[in-house]
């Protein structure tokens, strides 16, 4: 067995294997305190390579990571990875994945339900549901691709529940007061003009470049999103496939963006126009709301404000979904309570139909 004791007193493993292309490979793992630990690690690698359900949950997470990490946006994976490392692996890492049952999952749920954060509060219902869904997703992956007979997390049932966040928005008058208050900083003013009058997302705004605008046609193309990850500027695809869209801008906004581009002397076509951080926008939201005397809403609520504006202008849910890039019309219908009641108009038209029928019948007789 390729296990060796080093001069430092620790143990190392020279592990040979055949990869998915059929090529022979070798890897070395050092720093084991005992020979037993080194042998156990080498045995676990052999089990993992065969994708056996005798592998530990921790080893399966390595496979899950290799399978899934490249399929989602980097910031999305970071969120998933944090939950896996801090809320799931500490409980299940050394258990054989094929031995974990629904009772084990319930015990884990109860542990999380009893935990409190630094402020003494329990985790939110939303967060608990998200954590459970991540565990369930790992088991579903094992069921679908690695022969696990059933998903113990699904059998245990979910914990937590989705809490719908209050949907806030500014009226046009409130936004105008805010815009006047931040006009002293052009970067802030033009950024918030884009957010309010087009309904784009914060990440979509921060990824915009001059090349995305067709000012003669009055359009802006949304085809990417900006994230700050581990101190790096990262440009990703938009949130969903439907998020890629071309938005018509009102004439006054076209003129404003033209003015802004003239201020950005020497900017290249592929450079970010709004080269600021999300923190900067949040700070400006605080400053502007306080100066204007309007309620403080989230940056994302400007998107809600745009939808609210379009609803009250009489546009349909289908038309609005197309403009703001909702993946499903069902998302737009979450704003259903904002759509004006059409009951009176419906009754008038129904009465009109009957009235027309009666008049036609008189002519026939």
Give an overview in words.
This protein has helices spanning 35-49, 57-68, 74-92, 102-114, 125-146, 152-156, 172-181, 186-198, 202-206, 251-263, 278-292, 301-312, 317-324, 329-332, 343-364, and strands at residues 3-5, 11-18, 24-32, 213-214, 219-222, 225-229, 232-236, 245-248. It has 365 residues and is mostly helical. It folds into three domains: 1-37, no CATH class; 51-156, Tyrosine recombinase, N-terminal domain (DNA polymerase, domain 1), CATH 1.10.150; 172-338, Orthogonal Bundle (hpI Integrase, Chain A), CATH 1.10.443.10. It is extended and about 95 Å long. The N and C termini lie far apart (105 Å).
Residue windows where pLDDT falls under 50 for at least 5 positions = none
* Secondary-structure class: mainly alpha
Q: What is the subunit organization of this protein?
A: single chain
**Rg estimate, integer Å:** 28 Å
Order of helices and strands: EEEHHHHHHHHHEEEEEHHHHHH
Kindly give the count of domains. 3
CATH superfamily of the largest domain: Intergrase catalytic core
The overall average pLDDT, rounded, is 85
Q: Looking across the biggest beta sheet, what order are the strands in?
A: 1-2-3
Counting H and I runs of at least 4 residues, what is the number of helices?
A: 15
Largest sheet: 3 strands, antiparallel
CATH fold-level label of the largest domain: hpI Integrase, Chain A
Say how many strands there are: 8
Q: Report how far apart the termini are.
A: 105 Å
Which shape, going by the Cα principal axes? extended
Do you know the CATH architecture of the largest domain?
A: Orthogonal Bundle
Strand coverage percent: 5-15%
Q: Give the CATH class of the largest domain.
A: Mainly Alpha
Amount of helix: 40-55%
């Amino acid at each position: 067995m390729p296990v060796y004791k080093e001069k430092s007193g620790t143990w190392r493993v020279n592990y040979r294997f055949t990869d998915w292309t059929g090529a022979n490979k070798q890897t070395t793992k050092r720093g084991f305190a005992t020979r037993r630990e080194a042998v156990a690690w080498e045995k676990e690698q052999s089990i993992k390579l065969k994708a056996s359900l005798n592998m530990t949950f921790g080893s399966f997470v390595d496979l899950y990571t290799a399978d899934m990490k490249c399929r989602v946006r980097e910031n999305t994976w970071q969120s998933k990875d944090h939950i896996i490392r801090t809320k799931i692996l500490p409980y299940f890492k050394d258990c054989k994945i094929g031995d974990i049952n629904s009772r084990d999952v319930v015990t884990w749920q109860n542990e999380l339900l009893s935990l409190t954060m630094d402020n003494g509060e329990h985790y939110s219902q939303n967060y608990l549901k998200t954590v459970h869904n991540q565990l369930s997703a790992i088991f579903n992956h094992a069921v679908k691709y690695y022969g696990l007979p059933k998903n113990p997390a699904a059998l245990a049932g979910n914990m937590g529940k989705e809490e719908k966040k209050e949907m806030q928005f500014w009226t046009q008058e409130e936004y105008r007061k805010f815009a006047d208050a931040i006009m002293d900083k052009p970067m802030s003013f033009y950024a918030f003009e884009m957010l309010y009058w087009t309904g784009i997302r914060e990440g979509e705004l921060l990824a915009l470049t001059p090349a995305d605008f067709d000012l003669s046609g009055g359009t802006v193309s949304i085809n990417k999103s900006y994230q700050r990850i581990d101190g790096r500027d990262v440009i990703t695809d938009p949130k969903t496939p439907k998020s890629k869209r071309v938005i018509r801008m009102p004439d006054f906004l076209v003129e404003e963006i033209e003015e802004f581009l003239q201020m950005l002397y020497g900017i290249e076509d592929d450079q970010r126009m709004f080269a600021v951080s999300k923190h900067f926008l949040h700070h400006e939201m605080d400053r502007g709301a306080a100066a204007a005397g309007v309620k403080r809403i989230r940056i994302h609520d400007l998107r809600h404000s745009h939808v609210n504006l379009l609803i009250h202008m009489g546009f349909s849910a289908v038309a609005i979904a197309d403009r703001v890039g909702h993946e499903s019309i069902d998302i737009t219908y979450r704003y259903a309570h904002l759509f004006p009641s059409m009951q009176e108009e419906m009754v008038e038209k129904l009465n009109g139909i009957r009235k027309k029928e009666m008049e036609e019948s008189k002519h026939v007789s």
